[in-house]
Amino acid sequence: MSVEILSSALIELGEDRIASADQDTERARLARAVYEVERDALLEEHPWKFAIRRVALARLAAAPAFGFARAFRLPADCLHVIGTEPETAYGIEGGNLLCDLDAVAVRYVRRVENPAEMPPTFRVALAARVAVRLARKITGSSAEKERLEALYRERLRTAKGRDARGGGTPEANRPDLLQRARR
Questions:
Q1: Which residues pair with 85 in a beta bridge?
Q2: How far is CA 39 from CA 32, 59, 115, 128, in A?
Q3: How many domains does the chain have?
């Protein structure tokens, strides 16, 4: 858990910084209570380049009871599957990817727990998101919550814009169209 991100959220609310994520104060307990859920939700709602991973999946011995021929275990840190290679129809159930292929790989958004792996613009957007969740409880003000929601939307737009410009060429993120046509 990031003391930096939690402190930034509290500062947005007009509160003092915390010295430790384990600090035994009401505001630190509140921030800890929402941090991981808000972090994962923010990661899941956009294919952040820093959070994307590619991996071949391990096939499970037991096939699904119906609907698909095979089941593959998704990585424990998988928050959202972006797509499969080769492209195929699939379903996700109980931490497994179900499809009719004998082998499959996925591009997915992973849970990033280490703030050092997050770009600065993502960290400030996350801090604003945490502040929005805490606003009513800490300040008791609807107007303050609305101000923070606007701040969050602005920081999110900045983070997404930076993410769009910072990950190589657009062609590097798409399968080759000729290879796809040959399949």
A1: 105
A2: 11, 30, 10, 11
A3: 2
Quick check: helix, strand or coil at residue 9? helix
- Which one of 112, 136, 153 terminates a domain? 112
Q: Quote the pLDDT of residue 183.
A: 47
Quickly list H helices, the chain.
3-12, 26-44, 120-139, 142-165, 177-182
- Which pLDDT belongs to residue 39? 97
CA distance 72 to 120: 34
Per the structure, the complete domain to which residue 89 belongs is given by: 50-112
Q: Measure the CA–CA gap between 145 and 141, rounded to whole angstroms.
A: 6
pLDDT (0 to 100) of residue 78: 98
| Amino acid letter, residue 83 | G
Taking only Cα atoms into account, the Rg of the chain, rounded to an integer number of angstroms, comes to 20
Do 157 and 138 fall within a single domain? yes
Torsion of CA 159, 161, 165, 168, to 10 degrees: 70
Shared domain check, 129 and 43 = yes
The three-class DSSP label of residue 118 is coil
Positions in the chain whose pLDDT score sits under 70: 1, 167-183
